[in-house]
Amino acid sequence: MSKLTRRALPLLLICTAHLLGLLALAYGLGSSPPTPPQAVISAGVLPPQPLPVVAPPSEPTPAPPKPQQRPTPPKPAPLPPSKNAPPAPDAITAPAAEPQPVQPEVARAEAPPAPPAPPAPPAVVPPRSDAAHLNNPAPAYPTLSRKLGEQGRVLLSIYVLADGTVGEIKLKQSSGFSRLDEVALSTVKRWKFVPARQGDNAIAYWYVQPLNFSLNAG
């Protein structure tokens, strides 16, 4: 064999191997892999079944959010008044109190106990003019007054002294007829009385003495 043939043989083998590889690659790309047989699925139609009605669970109503309270800022502490600061226009300056002289303390003496209340004075017994031993005469009925039909009641204010005599006499109420009044005054002025008494003592006393003038009296 010639030298040229020996050198070309390896090159020919390499080309042949490359050609076979290309053919194998082309065959693999052109042919698809075998498809496996598909399974046959048969489905039947079932009648509709009623589904149970289930109420959805009630969810709790969320509470409304509480409004956030803003913290109150602390009030600044008032500054102490400066000694040199001028007074406020509406400030009222009280007049300085004058010093009072200090007086020496005097020992207080204990107050004496209150004296007992004096006993109430005894009641006054008014005078009397109807005592049997007095023998006071009744006023004489004036004859003219009887003829004229004059009658009435006289009231006399008499100041009876402590000895029972009349100190003063006044007409307190008239009978309406002067003759009857004058007879009453002149008669009672000479009477004697049991004097008024206060306890064991006889006292002077104003006393009202009534006198009746009646035509029907016996």
UniProtKB/TrEMBL annotation:
<comment type="similarity">
    <text>Belongs to the TonB family.</text>
</comment>
<keyword id="KW-0812">Transmembrane</keyword>
<keyword id="KW-0813">Transport</keyword>
<protein>
    <recommendedName>
        <fullName>Protein TonB</fullName>
    </recommendedName>
</protein>
<keyword id="KW-0653">Protein transport</keyword>
<feature type="compositionally biased region" description="Low complexity">
    <location>
        <begin position="90"/>
        <end position="111"/>
    </location>
</feature>
<dbReference type="GO" id="GO:0055085">
    <property type="term" value="P:transmembrane transport"/>
</dbReference>
<dbReference type="InterPro" id="IPR037682">
    <property type="entry name" value="TonB_C"/>
</dbReference>
<keyword id="KW-1133">Transmembrane helix</keyword>
<dbReference type="GO" id="GO:0098797">
    <property type="term" value="C:plasma membrane protein complex"/>
</dbReference>
<keyword id="KW-0735">Signal-anchor</keyword>
<dbReference type="GO" id="GO:0015031">
    <property type="term" value="P:protein transport"/>
</dbReference>
<dbReference type="Pfam" id="PF03544">
    <property type="entry name" value="TonB_C"/>
</dbReference>
<feature type="compositionally biased region" description="Pro residues">
    <location>
        <begin position="51"/>
        <end position="89"/>
    </location>
</feature>
<dbReference type="InterPro" id="IPR006260">
    <property type="entry name" value="TonB/TolA_C"/>
</dbReference>
<keyword id="KW-0997">Cell inner membrane</keyword>
<feature type="compositionally biased region" description="Pro residues">
    <location>
        <begin position="112"/>
        <end position="125"/>
    </location>
</feature>
<dbReference type="GO" id="GO:0015891">
    <property type="term" value="P:siderophore transport"/>
</dbReference>
<dbReference type="GO" id="GO:0031992">
    <property type="term" value="F:energy transducer activity"/>
</dbReference>
<comment type="function">
    <text>Interacts with outer membrane receptor proteins that carry out high-affinity binding and energy dependent uptake into the periplasmic space of specific substrates. It could act to transduce energy from the cytoplasmic membrane to specific energy-requiring processes in the outer membrane, resulting in the release into the periplasm of ligands bound by these outer membrane proteins.</text>
</comment>
<dbReference type="InterPro" id="IPR003538">
    <property type="entry name" value="TonB"/>
</dbReference>
<keyword id="KW-1003">Cell membrane</keyword>
<feature type="region of interest" description="Disordered">
    <location>
        <begin position="51"/>
        <end position="138"/>
    </location>
</feature>
<keyword id="KW-0472">Membrane</keyword>
<dbReference type="InterPro" id="IPR051045">
    <property type="entry name" value="TonB-dependent_transducer"/>
</dbReference>
<feature type="domain" description="TonB C-terminal">
    <location>
        <begin position="126"/>
        <end position="218"/>
    </location>
</feature>
<dbReference type="GO" id="GO:0030288">
    <property type="term" value="C:outer membrane-bounded periplasmic space"/>
</dbReference>
